[in-house]
C-alpha cells in the first residue's frame, strides 16, 4: 500500500532530475566550445608578452600625468613692476591738473547725488570709488548702464552728476545711456584715456587720464588703465574729504563695525571689566592669602585699594615671582602693600580704547593691563590687553 503511494513520487523526481541534467549537459558543451574558441584565438585577447593566468600590465593611459611646475622668473617679475611704475609715472607727469581741479570742484559743489557708471573693469573701479565717497558721508551711487535703460535711470534728477568711467570712451552701452541721462537733466562727465573718443563729444565735462600703454604684453588687458582710474578717483575722494573738513568722529560714525570703527568709537568704559570682576585686595593682606584672587580673575594682577576704594597700587604675577625668588620662605610674612607698585599706569573711563592700547605698549616696559580710575582716584574698572584684542582692536 505504502509502496504504491511512493512510486509515483520517485518517478516524478527521476523525470525532473533527467530534465535538469540535460540542461546542465547542454550548458557544459556550450562552455567547452567557447573555451576552445578562446584557446584558439587567445593571442587576440592577451596583451603581448602576457602569460595565461597572469594579470595584464596596467596600460599607460591610467597612470596619472606628470605635472611640471612652471617657475616664475624673478628678473621678469621685477621688470614687470618696473614697467608698471614707468607707466604710472607717465600718468602723473602728464595729468592735466586744471581738468582735475575743475572736476573735483564740480563734485564738491554737487547739490544732488554723484553717480558713477562704467562697463567691465572700469565699471568695478567706478563702483569702488562711489563706495569710497559714501564712506566719507558723500551721497553717491553706481548706476549700471544696462539696468539704467530698464528703469534704473528713474533715480537721476537735474541736480545729479553722472560720471562715465571708460578707457576707450567708445563703449556702446555708455553711449546709449547718454541721451537718456541728458533727458533727465543730469550733468554728464567723462573720464577716459583715449583722446578724441565719442564720449568726450557728448558729455558736459571731460577728464583725460594719460595712458602710455597697458602692462599686458598684448596691450589689451586693462591692468594699467584701471590702476590710474583707481588712483585718480581715490585721490579726488581724499581731496573732497579735506575740503569738507571731515572729523575723525564723523568718519568713525560711518564705520561702526570692524577695526576702523572700533578704534575710533570704543572708549575704555566700553571694554573694561567692572567692579564685581576686579581682583581687589587691601594693602595689609598677606600675599599668600591673595593667590586665589590673583589667579582667578584673569587680569594677571591685584588692585590694591583702601576702604574708600581709592587705588593704592598694583601687584602683578610678575611681582609674585620676583618676590618669591628674593624672599623665599619670607614671602609668607609679606603683605601686598609692602611689595606692590604704588605708581602704576592708569587711565580714565572716557579715554579711547585705542589710546589705552597705546599706553600699555609705551616704553620703558609694556604692561598687560591698566587700572581705570575717575578724577578722584576711585577704582572703577580695569582694561586688559586681552580684552582689547578680544574686542577687535
From TrEMBL:
One of its GO terms (biological process) is carbohydrate metabolic process. Residues 272-334, 340-393 form the CBS domain. The keyword Repeat applies. This is Arabinose 5-phosphate isomerase. Belongs to the SIS family. GutQ/KpsF subfamily. PANTHER family: ARABINOSE 5-PHOSPHATE ISOMERASE-RELATED, PTHR47476. It holds the Pfam family CBS. InterPro entries: CBS_dom, CBS_dom_sf, KdsD/KpsF-type, SIS_dom, SIS_dom_sf, SIS_Kpsf. Keywords: CBS domain, Repeat. Residues 103-246 form the SIS domain. The keyword Transport does not apply. One of its GO terms (molecular function) is isomerase activity.
Amino acid at each position: 500500500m505504502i509502496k504504491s503511494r511512493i512510486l509515483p513520487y520517485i518517478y516524478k523526481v527521476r523525470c525532473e532530475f533527467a530534465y535538469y541534467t540535460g540542461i546542465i549537459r547542454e550548458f557544459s558543451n556550450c562552455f567547452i566550445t567557447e573555451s576552445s574558441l578562446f584557446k584558439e584565438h587567445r593571442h587576440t585577447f592577451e596583451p603581448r608578452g602576457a602569460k595565461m593566468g597572469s594579470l595584464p600590465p596596467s596600460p599607460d593611459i591610467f597612470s596619472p600625468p606628470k605635472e611640471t611646475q612652471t617657475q616664475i622668473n624673478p628678473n621678469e617679475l621685477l621688470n614687470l613692476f618696473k614697467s608698471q611704475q614707468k607707466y604710472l609715472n607717465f600718468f602723473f607727469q602728464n595729468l592735466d591738473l586744471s581738468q582735475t581741479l575743475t572736476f573735483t570742484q564740480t563734485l564738491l559743489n554737487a547739490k544732488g547725488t554723484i553717480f558713477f557708471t562704467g562697463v567691465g573693469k572700469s565699471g568695478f573701479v567706478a563702483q569702488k570709488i562711489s563706495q569710497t565717497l559714501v564712506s566719507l558721508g558723500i551721497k553717491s551711487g553706481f548706476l549700471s548702464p544696462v539696468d539704467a535703460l530698464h528703469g534704473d535711470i528713474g533715480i537721476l534728477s537735474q541736480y545729479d552728476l553722472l560720471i562715465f568711467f571708460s578707457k576707450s570712451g567708445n563703449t556702446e552701452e555708455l553711449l546709449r545711456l547718454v541721451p537718456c541721462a541728458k533727458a533727465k537733466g543730469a550733468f554728464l562727465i567723462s573720464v577716459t584715456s583715449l583722446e578724441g573718443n565719442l564720449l568726450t563729444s557728448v558729455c558736459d565735462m571731460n577728464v583725460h587720464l594719460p595712458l602710455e600703454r597697458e602692462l599686458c604684453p598684448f596691450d589689451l588687458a586693462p591692468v594699467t588703465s584701471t590702476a590710474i582710474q583707481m588712483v585718480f578717483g581715490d585721490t579726488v575722494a581724499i581731496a573732497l574729504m579735506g575740503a569738507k573738513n571731515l572729523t575723525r568722529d564723523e568718519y568713525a560714525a560711518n564705520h561702526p563695525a570692524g577695526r576702523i570703527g572700533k578704534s575710533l568709537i570704543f572708549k575704555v568704559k566700553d571694554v573694561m571689566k567692572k567692579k564685581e570682576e576686579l581682583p581687589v585686595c587691601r594693602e595689609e593682606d598677606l600675599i599668600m592669602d591673595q593667590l586665589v584672587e590673583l589667579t582667578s580673575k584673569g587680569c594677571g594682577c591685584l588692585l590694591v585699594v583702601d576702604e574708600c576704594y581709592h587705588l593704592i597700587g598694583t601687584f602683578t604675577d610678575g611681582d609674585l615671582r620676583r618676590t618669591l625668588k628674593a624672599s623665599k620662605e619670607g614671602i609668607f610674612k609679606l603683605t601686598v602693600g609692602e611689595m606692590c607698585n604704588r605708581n602704576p599706569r592708569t587711565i580714565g573711563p572716557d579715554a579711547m580704547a585705542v589710546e589705552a592700547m597705546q599706553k600699555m605698549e609705551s616704553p620703558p616696559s609694556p604692561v598687560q593691563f591698566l587700572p581705570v580710575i575717575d578724577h578722584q582716584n576711585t577704582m572703577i574698572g580695569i582694561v586688559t590687553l586681552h580684552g582689547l584684542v578680544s574686542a577687535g582692536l
